[in-house]
Specification:
Elements (H helix, E strand, L loop, with lengths): L1 H20 L4 E12 L23 H22 L5 E7 L2 H8 L10 E4 L9 E6 L5 E8 L14 H6 L5 E8 L2 E9 L9 H21 L4 E7 L7 H6 L2 E2 L10 E2 L1 H7 L5 E3 L2 E3 L2 E6 H4 L7 E2 L10 E2 L20 E2 L2 E2 L9 E6 L1
Parallel strand pairs: 1-2, 7-8, 9-10
Antiparallel strand pairs: 1-18, 2-4, 3-4, 5-6, 6-7, 8-13, 10-13, 11-12, 14-18, 15-18, 16-17
Length: 356
């Protein structure tokens, strides 16, 4: 009897540990452009002067703390809507690891225990991409920072070789790990902006870099499930996404080395994640490879989450949306016409859901 009691007691003690390791059946994989999440300190070699206390935006600690609260509030709202936090959340427009450490410690989301993957990149303003993940659901195996280069490509660029040498933009983040016993890879990107009007070739080059790396990873790890996410500064219908990243609108079109882009049908249906020059666009894209689409029974696959028809979601709630004025109906941004309006981001977050 004493032996039985001891075994029962041991099982009770081990139960919390076993529960902590249990993998969910459904996982949220998302992306959010945090729109200039800067701290109040200057980073050497970076043009972050407008986000200093004496800079153009008079970026004080009070404003910084409000910005952190705003970002955490949106992430928490997505958790409340989905009943679980993101397993993986890609982010962009963050200044450094410090701002992410401050973000994940916010009381609204601290219980998620988000861990951080981040590398300092060459962007002149100092903004980078990063990945937040829950270590109880995703086991990190490796990560890399992939530079933007002009080598080994047949794309004809609008900038000459001298300007190419001087060109600086965000690196692409690659993260590989497991959810349960299945291997996943995630790419987080923030492709070159549309400033100047003739930069489509640069975004096509960024897409080409991602695609070639993803193909290599698929060849090295047969059956690996891949999600490419980011602020692409292009719509799902643009050349960079359709041709260079091989994004397809329907699952039936997806070949072995293609990607399913659920936001392609959504933009055609009128959805948008931001308003660019007054026109609704979806720059915040997540696409998945065939292994995520045609998954064997009992393994993780992408699921429809909007009207049982769309496989992606643009997450927007009234508190995230401008209710009046020039930008009524658009995402409520942090700054407007040079003034701090205590908003959120000029982008809505997007996400997909995978489940067994």
């Amino acid at each position: 009897m004493k032996r039985v009691f001891c075994i029962f007691t041991a099982l009770l003690l081990l139960a919390p540990l076993a529960g902590a390791q249990k993998v969910q059946k459904s996982h949220v994989i998302g992306f959010y452009n945090l729109e200039n999440l800067f701290d109040t300190y200057h980073d050497d070699g970076k043009n972050d002067y407008e986000y200093l206390p004496d800079g153009a935006n008079q970026w004080t600690d009070v404003k910084y703390q409000k910005k952190l609260h705003s970002m955490a509030s949106v992430i928490r709202a997505m958790k409340d809507a989905n009943k679980v936090y993101h397993t993986v959340l890609g982010v962009s427009e963050i200044e450094n690891r410090h701002v992410l450490e401050d973000l994940v410690a916010q009381p609204e989301i601290a219980d998620a225990n988000f861990q951080i993957v981040h590398y300092d990149g060459p962007d002149r303003r100092g903004v980078d991409c990063a990945l937040l993940y829950r270590p109880d659901q995703f086991t990190l195996l490796e990560s890399r920072s992939i530079p933007f280069t002009f080598e080994d490509t047949e794309i004809e660029f609008n900038i000459d070789s001298l300007r190419q040498i001087d060109f600086r933009t965000r690196d692409i983040l690659h993260v590989r790990g497991t959810i349960g016993d299945e291997m996943f890879a995630f790419y987080v990107a923030h492709l070159p902006s549309r400033i100047g009007g003739k930069s489509g070739d640069l975004r096509s080059r960024g897409a080409e870099i991602i695609y070639r790396d993803a193909v290599r990873v698929m060849e090295e790890y047969p059956g690996i499930k891949i999600a490419v996410m980011g602020d692409m500064n292009d719509n799902p219908t643009d050349v960079s996404m359709c041709e260079y990243l091989h994004g397809k609108e329907t699952m039936a079109e997806v070949g072995d080395l293609d990607f399913f882009n659920p936001f392609l049908s959504m933009i055609k249906a009128g959805y948008g994640s931001l308003a660019y020059q007054g026109v609704w666009c979806i720059f915040d894209i997540i696409m998945v490879n065939k292994a995520m689409v045609a998954a064997p029974e009992g393994s993780f696959t992408i699921k429809p989450i909007v009207k049982k028809r769309f496989y992606g979601r643009v997450f927007q709630l009234p508190f995230m949306t401008e209710q009046e004025g020039q930008y009524k109906g658009q995402p409520k941004r942090t700054m407007s016409n040079g003034a701090f309006i205590n908003g959120y981001s000029d982008h809505y977050p997007t996400y997909i859901v995978i489940s067994k």
